[in-house]
Amino acid sequence: xxxxxxxxxxxxxxxxxxxxAISAHEAGARVLLLDRATESEAGxxxxxxxxxxxxxxxxxxxxxLADALVDDFMGHPDPGLTxxxxxSWEKRSPLLRAHPMVDLDYVETFVExxxxxxxxxxxxxxxxxxxxxxxxxxxxxxxxxxxxxxALVETLSRRAxxxxxxxxxxxTVRELVVDEGVxxxxxxxxxxxxxxxxxxxxxxxxxxEGNAEMMARYHGDKAMTCRPVARGGNYNKGEGLEMALAAGxxxxxxxxxxxxxxxxxxxxxxxxxxxxxxxxxxxxxxGRRFVxxxxxxxxxWYERTTRDIQAQxxxxxxxxxxxxxxxxxxxxxxxxxEEPAVTAGTxxxxxxxxxxxxxxxxxxxxxxxxxxxxxxWDVTRPDGMATQGLHPAKSNWARPISQGPFAAYPIMAANVxxxxxxxxxxxxxxxxxxxxxxxGLYAAGEMTGLYYSNYVGSTSVLRGATFGRIAGxxxxxxxxxxxxx
Length: 485
What we know:
The protein is an alpha/beta fold. Helices cover about 30% and strands about 20% of the residues. The chain has helices at about 15-25, 65-75, 80-85, 95-100, 105-120, 150-160, 210-220, 240-245, 300-310, 325, 345-355, 360-370, 460-485, and strands at about 1-10, 30-35, 130, 145, 165-170, 170-180, 180-190, 195-205, 225-230, 250, 260-265, 280-285, 315-320, 340-345, 405-420, 420, 430, 435-445.
């Protein structure tokens, strides 16, 4: 088994890994970046995402970002309570400060460092803008990199290579090398054999959505009714998480949940999302409604609705739109599948095409239509047009679905990334179960736990870049100190 030495070893070449590698190089380290994929497939989930970022501008996070992250842990309590708890960093709640799962220093660092991180990325060739999204109604502001996640991966990979950072593709890290409690390197499997790489380690190799055994371990039978949202997720096998746990790392985030996105299961396209159900109804495989389809802006509620879909028999539902729903301006931006809708002239004909009981589906639609109020809807914002006396209710955009032709799309949950991960501090150091940093080990990106009840939209790529940059600089400094001692 051959051995090679660098100052910093980065595992994974998505946004967190690339940011770590470039940052470590800028801090004077000799850097090696390892990725299990081929060069053309490298980049993990980042390569396939549009990479929306919860920012008001390149310099300013969206309003309420800190509150949203704390709300997630608190399970979305009374908004007034949460605002009172987090409205001032100088008056943090003693409850939150003492809670072992809430690191307000991490949240504060995220909020304060996000803007400088985007400016830093601009300095390495990226550009950002307020690009169109797939959400027809929104609760926050977003930026995106020009060219999406693919541009992030390709631009930063090219920049890293220009800087002299070494890359090793088709290299799967199997072990952490630990010497008397200090992480001193990794063992990687390559087509040529196993190689030991010495150096301070940054783990940025994603979650475990590509590992069927781990998915079943943490999510039970729900693991059978979802797949990674894009093929980059298939490379996320969870080894980094397991290696760090074996070295004594603590965990953070909710291991019973993952970021769920509603997709067309017929499609092989990345993120074949369907975000138009607010203007129609959702029925399960028995032809019955089961959820309030329009509790608020789609960007704030789609994940919880997707979880409701996954809880149904066979983990799926049908979105039904009538002619008026299909005529909503820009509706196709919210239906990202390339597969055609199932269409029919009547509800009875649609039931037959969907293999649903026609009597049940007709009764479901008649009951829903009878509960809809009179009036004109406003498709641009939650309009308060709610059903009356119906369970489950529909809180907005409740208008009769009665104008043929009708269109239906199947929806299932896709796994964008897993919530459970490693606990890190605001310096991206991996923390052990006694609350101490593990020497020589840093982590960033989707393999670090942050979310507990609901994904805080458009923060994943942003935090990957932010804490990847922090991790790289910290790892380089740690390596200097270890060599000097």
